[in-house]
Amino acid sequence: MTEENNLISRVKRYSQVTTSITSLATKFAGKKYLNLDLSDQKYAAQITEILGNLKGPLMKVAQLSATIPDLLPEEYARKLAELQSNAPPMSWVFVKRRMKAELGDNWEKNFSQFEKEASFAASLGQVHKARLNNKDYVACKLQYPDMSSAVEADLSQLKIIFKIYSSYNKSIQIREIYKEIEARLKEELDYRLEHKHLKVFETIHKKNEYIKIPKVYGKISTNRLLVMQFLEGKKLIEYKQAPQKVRNELAKKLFMAWYYPFYKYGIIHGDPHLGNYSVDNKNNINLFDYGCVRIFPAKFVKGVIDLYFALKEKDNTKIKLAYEAWGFKDIDDKLMNVLNKWALFLYDPILKDGIRRIQDSDSGIYGAKIAGEVHKELKKYGGVKPPREFVFMDRAAVGLGSIFIHLKAEINWYRLFHDLIKDFSVKKVEDNQKKALKAAGI
Question: What is the 3-state secondary structure (H, E, C) of 246-258?
Answer without folding.
Answer: HHHHHHHHHHHHH
